[in-house]
Amino acid sequence: MKIGKQTIKLENTPKILNTSSMVGPKEMQGPLSSYFELHTDDIFFGEKSFEKAESKIMKTCVDNLIAKNGLSKEDIDYIFAGDLLNQCISSAYCIRDLNIPFFGLYGACSTFCEGLMLASLFVNAGYAQKVIATTSSHFCSAERQFRMPLEHGNQLSPTAQCTVTASGSALIVPKDVNSDSPYITYVTPGKIVDMGIKDMTNMGAAMAPSAYSTIKAHLQDTGRSIDYYDAIVTGDLGIIGSDILKDLFKEDGLDISEIHNDCGVLIYDKDSQDTHCGGSGCGCMASVFSGYFYEQLKTKKLNKILIVATGALMSPVSSQQGESIPGIAHAVAIENEV
Amino acid sequence: MDKDINMTDKEYSDYVDKKATNSPMLKHIIMAFLVGGFICVIGQLITNTFMHFGVPKDSATTITTIILIFIGAFLTSINVYSKIGKFAGAGSTIPITGFSNSVVAPAIEFKTEGYVLGLGANMFKIAGPVLVYGITSSVIIGFIYWLIKLFL
To answer: Would you place residue B1 in the very low, low, confident or very high pLDDT band (cuts 50, 70, 90)?
Structure first.
């Protein structure tokens, strides 16, 4: 049921039955390494190209999710998947072998929440019993699509972020499934907010206003105050973007610095890993939520969280044509009790 | 457009500029000077060595260029040049070794799309514009030089 301007209340509160995450070598050197379920030390993951490697990472992640719940792929009703590559090829080639009805999504780095949101709406409405939401990104495939060849000797701007090599997936089921899993209670799809930022090496600044807009709309629509949540987790605003988000809320007299976390900031150690402003990419929130935050919910260290994946909806073509970067953010409220 | 944020685009962009950390300019300039200079010294050493063994100056500089291009390509292929570029910046981009790096890097990267439409078509992705405008401007300068010589 739609409440307020943008939010949808899920009366049937679907559950996130389980999650699965897989990361690459650099993410395994980061501070969250012990939370990721699967990893590979080989950036090619045994494949001939980075695109194939990304697809395989996503496939391994989804296979693991299905297997560890004692299911087979025939049990899955639908899958919502997306990635950063042109025409979403990582998802398409991953799902080609799965034989599951598939919705391909593109919301840049916001895709994980977009998928989670649509999957939970499907289950909430009773259209499906088991739906998977998954996304992936790969540092090397993203670099070659959006930036310079890997071996080119150049310097990055201090505001730049590093695309994570990772995939994360979540299995959504109706609430009557017997399991001690967190519920999805509200979803707030975001509007595009564009404040005229054109610098492709400063995406945090381009996306922060959209995160602010979506979180604010969510709070207004649900009538909740900011301290209702144990944590508000943004996708990949990075260090500067997170700072801007805090400043924007400060203008409203709200202090979110205590409860705000950003997956892009958490996944790497900035000083030892030379990642400038932090991680980014579809796989960033997917893996950090599936690995770290889901675990925190299961162990009741956190009980009520709002995850807000942020995306920058530009392409190299639009940037070369002088367009600014449209930002988007989708919020999903996840709670242990309803 | 109904905006939730109480700032104009201009105000926001100024605010972001203040927020964003700038590149460490002085450090970059010094590193570029040192590394760029070092590459030039190596080039000079090679030239002088050849000249010492009786190779004429013209041929010696050509040989030097070829050797430096090879070194740049070789270091690119063993994943060293990108690391040098990270701290040297323009110091390793501007010399001819950097030009070699800018041709070899996309060649390695686009090999997965095949030798013709991948490697062949993308090899000059970065160096292409340099060639186009480099050659065009040298033709124009050459023409001006010719005109001036005609009247002087």
So the answer is: very low
Contact A159 B108 (CB under 8 A): no
Quote the pLDDT of residue B3: 66
Spatial distance between the Cα atoms of A240 and A299, rounded to a whole number of angstroms: 31
The size of the A-B interface in CB pairs under 8 A is 107
- Write out chain B residues lying below 8 Å of A150, CB-based: 82, 105, 108-109
Give residue B77's domain range. 25-127
CA distance B15 to chain A (A): 9
Domain boundaries, chain A: 14-173, 183-335
pLDDT in tens, A264-323: 999 999 889 988 899 999 999 999 999 999 999 999 999 999 999 999 999 999 999 999
Considering CB atoms only, which of A149, A197, A217 is closest to B109? A149
Residue B118 contacts residue B90 (beta carbons within 8 Å): no
Based on the structure, what is the number of domains in chain B?
1
Q: Which residues pair with A78 in a beta bridge?
A: A131
**Residue A194: exposure state from Cβ atoms within 10 A (0-12, 13-18, ≥19):** buried
Bridge partner residues of A172 (DSSP)? A16, A131
* ipTM for this prediction: 0.88
Surface of B (15-54) touching A: CB under 8 A: 15-16, 19-23, 28
Predicted pLDDT of residue A155: 87
Cβ atoms of A213 and A47 within 8 Å: the answer is no
A contact residues 261-320, partner B, Cβ 8 Å cutoff? none
Least confident of A205-219, B10-24, B137-151: B10-24
Decide if A253 touches B, using CB distance below 8 A: no
**With contact defined as beta carbons under 8 Å apart, do A15 and A177 qualify?**
yes
- Asked whether this chain's domains A14-173 and A183-335 adopt the same fold, the reply is yes
Flag whether B90 is in a domain.
yes
pLDDT tens digits for range A89-136: 999 999 998 999 999 999 999 999 999 999 999 999 999 999 999 999
* Residue B22 DSSP label: P
Contacts of A209 in chain B (CB under 8 A): 4-5, 12
Q: Which residues pair with A137 in a beta bridge?
A: A166
- The distance of B109 to chain A (nearest Cα, Å) reads 6
Reply yes or no on domain A14-173 having CATH 3.40.47.40: yes
Per-residue pLDDT at B21: 79
What are the chain A neighbours of B98 within 8 Å (beta carbons)? 153
> Could you name the CATH architecture of A183-335?
3-Layer(aba) Sandwich (3.40)
- Give me the residue from A49, A152, A248 closest to B105, CB to CB: A152
CA B127 centroid distance within chain: 8
A residues 67-126 near B, CB within 8 Å?
none
